[in-house]
Amino acid sequence: MTTVDRSGSLTALSTLLVQAMDALAQGGPDLAERAVELKDMVTRAPRVAVVGRLKAGKSTLVNALTEHHTAATGTLECTMAVSLYLDGQPARAEVLGLDGRVDRVTLGAGPLTDLPRPLEEIDHIRQYLPNARLRELSLIDTPGTATLTVENEQRTRRALIDGRQDTRRASSWADCVVFLSDSAPRDDERAFLADLGMTPLSTIGVLSRADSFGAGAFGPRDPLEHAREHAQRIAAQLGTSVSTVLPLSGLLAETAGTGQVTGEIARNLAQLADLDRDTLLDVVELDDPAVIVPGFTAAMRDDLLDRLGEYGLVHGRAVARDRGAVGLVEWMTRASGVEELTDLLTGDFAYFAVLQRAVRVLDELDELSASHPNRDHVRWVRSVTLAQPGMHFVALYRSYRNTIAATPDSHLLEPLRRAITAVDPAGVVGLPHGTPADQVRSAHEQALGELQEMAMTPLSAAEDEARERLLGAHQAALQAMR
């Protein structure tokens, strides 16, 4: 059976979108201006927006993902502004005002700590750092949802939701979202995720502070294991909002990724390796832990707790003893959950990010086709673009997005998701790779029959289009098997 080369498809689709924008630019100065923004949007590294409530750990996660103290975690004003983190030299910040003025600030080794103008006058901040991770994954840190003031949430909405209506801001649009929460989702969070215009294929849920879940590090059960089970329940509650929910210890991830684990840290932690849990708890609580571990001071303990938390203290001490600082960093990166999250964001999500961009290009072409004075040129660009083979998955993805928005309980959502994510004809009908061809063919024929019968049933406009797209997906899969 034919399989999909996802990396090849991604490259081909990106090239197609660039060509479409070059063609759009030939329609006059106004279209050229829009094409420049859209072209920048489709050629840059995937951009991930980190959202969640105030103090959910968003800036800590940004630091962990960039492996750099990039995002301010203690300066309230700076964390209340929407910040884009991009690769670039020299290290600098560009503070974009609501009035269009740009103030440029030189950055040192740490995060931006002072703003050159009042927060209420700022639209967003772009921070450029020479950072290898940001070359493959740029980030948007937000003040969050349901924060202490209406203004803070409005900043987030202006950047991620309202800004989607303005093509001049296309280069700042997010391609996918990491949604942080430390509990079950609230109604306002569900509504916010719905307003983002994403799909589950471009949205990951993160259960933050997972290392303190349940009874915590000194409890009878590993809190990360407990958090993973709870994360699965949250994923079920969020339904069509996220692809998965991962447990994460932001503290472990940030400390491991930003070079804070030294040989001295590992040696200090290793001194606690042979203590039982009750004695270790005494070390944590006593004013002078040296009465239990000679030479181990309160300052050493407090430093370890600041960097590793109780979980790192309990579960990392044997690692520090046996494998030293290098082994401790490897364990923290893996145990924290940031490794799994990064793999997702730089793997399949990079592909879905391009689909998300392509859908936005189609949305813009649709709008211009109806309203722009040179609509004939726009319609020509649109028709030629849609006729290209690489647009098949884009049309499926847009239909998936529209069906989620219009009919979130539609039974067509799962078939759409399979058709988008499948890498071979078997996957389109939910069968494992390697299934005998006759079984795969029979499943496609059955699906085609069911979809054709649906033409006689009441469907929303989005579902009707989804049905047509799925008919094409099954027919294409059958054709590929010949």
TrEMBL record:
InterPro entries: Dynamin, GTP-bd, P-loop_NTPase. Coiled coil: none annotated. It comes from the Bacteria. Residues 47-190 form the G domain. This is 50S ribosome-binding GTPase.
